[in-house]
Amino acid sequence: MKAVDGITYSVEEGETVAIVGESGCGKSVSALSVLRLIPDPPGKIVGGSIRFMGKELLSMSDDEIREIRGNHIGMVFQEPMTSLNPVLTIGRQLTETVEHHIGLEHEKAMDRARELLRLVGISDADRRLEQYPHHLSGGMRQRVMIAMALACEPKLIIADEPTTALDVTIQAQILELMKELTQRLGVALVIITHNLGVVARYANRVNVMYAGKIIERGTAAEIYHNPRHPYTLGLLRSVPRLDQPRGSRLIPIDGQPPDLTQLDGGCAFRPRCTFAVDRCAREIPPLEDVGEGHLTACWEQETVGKFMSKAS
Amino acid sequence: MSALESETADTETGLGDTLLQVKSLKKYFPITEGIFVKKAVANVKAVDGVSFDIRRGETLGLVGESGCGKSTTGRCILQLDPVTEGQIIFDGVDLATVDRNALNKVRERVQVIFQDPFSSLNPRMKVGDIIAEPMHVHGLEPDKGKREARVAELLSVCGLNPRMADRYPHEMSGGQRQRVGIARALSMRPELIVCDEAVSALDVSIQAQVINLLEDLREQFNLTYLFIAHDLSVVRHLCHRVAVMYLGKIVELADSDELFDNPMHPYTQALLSAVPVPDPTVEAGREHRVVKGEVPSPIDPPSGCVFHPRCSLATDSCSVDTPVLRELKPGHWVACSEV
C-alpha cells in the first residue's frame, strides 16, 4: 500500500506551512517520515529525499537522525496523554531532552525547564515540574508538549493535529501560543490538520493531500479563493461556516475516499469528481504550476478555474 | 441565497406546538468514598437548573465544551439517567409521573443518534438486524417479512443500498455506519430525535452528506431534533434556535442567526471568536479574543456566575450573585448581569 506517494514540499525559515486532508490521506505518515519515525517493518521509505538545512536525512545513521530529532526538529502530536510518559514527572521529561541534547547539568536543566513552562504560559512552574501528566488537563498537557518541542531551540516544529483533541477555547489558546512563539523565535512550523478554519487562520502556504499525493499547493489566499482542483473546491463547499446564515445548503463530495490498496493508473479523485474526463482514467495528472506559485494536479484545472470565476 | 432564506422562513412559520419542555433540570452525580459503606462526599453538578422547550419541527442546538452538561441533559431527556430534580414534559406528559408501560410508549417516540457509529452498533449483528431490532422489541412490526421490507425502505431513505442489510458494521465506512444509526432511530417513526454529536466523528466531505441527510429527513418526516454538538459551525447551519451551556447552566439562548450575529454573553462571544472560519481574508479581518484559563471543576463550581473567573467583564458582584436568564430582546435570553 502506498500511504504517501511521491510528495514534495518545502518549508522556509520562520514560515507556517499547512498540510490538509481527510483521514487516511497520508498527511501524518508524510510528517512522521521526515523524522524517520515510521516503524520498519512494516513501513518503508522506498525513495525520495528529505533535506533539512542542506543535509540529507534519509541517508543518516540512527545516531545522526536522533541528534536531529528533538534538537533541530521538534514534534507535537495530537494526543498529549499518549505521547508523554505517564510514569515520569513533567520536570524529568523536560530536563531529559535538554540534558541529552545540549548536555546541560541537572540544575541548569531545571532552570531551563522552568523557563520553558513560563514560555508556554504555565504558571506555578515549581509545582508543575513535580507533577505527572495525569495531573494536568488536556490543554496543559499540550502546552508541556510544546515546551518539550521548543526545549532545544529547534529550527522546525512539526505539529500533527495539535489541537484536534481540545475544546475550542483551549484550541484557540494553544494555536495563538504556537503562532506567537514560532514568530518570536523564528521557528518554521509544519501544521498537519483536517480543519480548514485553522489553516485559514494560521498558515502562509497550504498543501492539500488526497490519497497519498499532494494535489494542490499555494498561498492560503490562492487555495481558498481560487482553487483549481475539484477536491479542494469540494472541501470548501462542503464545510459549514460560522459566518453563513442558517439553511444555506452544503454541497458534499459524493462517494468516499478510495481504498489505497486498490488505486489504478488514473487520477485517484476521478470516481468522485464532477469535472472528470476520459483522460483522467488513463493518466495520473502531475502537480503543475498554474501561476503565482500555485500548483495543481488536475487535467481539467482550466475548467475548474472558469467554473470558479463564473461562480463568483 | 434569497431563495434559501425564504425556504427557511417557511419552515419557521410551519413550526408547531411545544413538543418537549425541560424545566429546572438538575442532574448531580455523587462522588462516593469508602469500600464497604459508600458515603457521598460531594456532588458533580453536571446539569444545574436547565430549562428550555422545543417546538414540533424545530431543531434546537445545545452547544458547549466538554463537561458542560450538554450530553447529560440529552441522556436525562432520553431517560437513560435518572433526573435529580426538575421536570421533563414530553407532549404534555411529565415523564416522572408515568408508569413503565407509558414510558416505553414515549421511548418509541423519542430516539437517539450517537456520536461514534463504531461503538453504538453491535459488531456481531448484521445491519438489517440492527435496524429491525427496535421494531421487534417494541412489537411495532411483528411480521418478519414486513419488517425486512421496512428495513430495506429505511436503508434507501438514508441513502444506503438495501442490499447492505446483510453486511456487518465493520464492513462499512464511518459515514455509512452513521447512516445505519440514523435508519435505526427512524425505524420507530419517532417525533423527537436527540442527536448527540451525530456528525462530529466524520470527515468534512462525509459530514456534509450526513448533515444534508438530517435536514432532508426532518422535512420529510416532520422530525424535531435536539442537536447536541461542540462544533458551532455545524450548529449554526442546522439549528433554528441555539442554547449555549457552560458548567451545567444555560448562559445564552436565542434564534440561531441572532445568536451568531449578535452574541451577548461574554462566554458566547469568546466561544465564537475562537472558532476559525475557513477563509483567510475573513480571518485576517477578525478579532481573535482568547479567553484565559480553563473550565473549573463542576464538583466545586465558582460562586455567583460560574463564568466570572474567566470573564473580562466581571465585577465584584459577579462572584456573589448568580445571574438568571433574562429576555433582553424578544426570544434572546442571556444570563449575565453586565450586558
How would you characterize this protein structure?
The complex is a heterodimer of chains A (312) and B (339). Chain A has 312 residues and is α/β, with parallel strands linked by helices. Chain A contains 13 helices and 10 strands. In chain A, the strands form 2 sheets. In chain A, strands 4-5-6-1-7-8-10-9 form an 8-stranded mixed β-sheet, with helices on both faces. In chain A, helix 4 crosses helix 5 (106-119). Chain A is globular, with a radius of gyration of 21 Å. Chain A starts with 15 loop residues before the first strand and ends with a helix. By secondary structure, chain B is an alpha/beta fold. Chain B is built from 11 helices and 12 strands. Chain B has helices at residues 2-13, 70-77, 100-109, 127-137, 144-157, 174-186, 204-221, 232-238, 256-261, 266-274, 280-284; strands at 18-33, 39-55, 59-63, 85-90, 93-94, 110-113, 192-196, 224-229, 241-246, 249-255, 326-329, 332-334. In chain B, helix 4 packs across helix 5, helix 4 runs parallel beside helix 6 and helix 5 (144-157) crosses helix 6. The chains are: A alpha/beta (312), B alpha/beta (339). The interface between A and B is large, with 47 and 52 residues.
Shape of chain A: globular
Q: Can you count the helices of chain B?
A: 11
Content-based structural category of chain B:
alpha/beta
**What fold name goes in the CATH topology slot of the largest domain in chain B?**
Rossmann fold
Please compute the radius of gyration of chain B using only Cα atoms: 21 Å
CATH superfamily of the largest domain in chain B: P-loop containing nucleotide triphosphate hydrolases
What is the count of distinct domains of chain B?
2
- Mean residue pLDDT of chain B: 89
What CATH first level of the largest domain in chain B would be assigned?
Alpha Beta
Structure annotation, total helices of chain A: 13
What sequence of helices (H) and strands (E) makes up the elements of chain A? EHEEHEHHHHHEHEHEEHHHEEH
Distance between termini of chain A? 40 Å
Spans where pLDDT lies below 50 across 5 or more residues of chain B:
1-13
Radius of gyration of chain A: 21 Å
Q: Trace the largest sheet of chain A across and list its strands.
A: 4-5-6-1-7-8-10-9
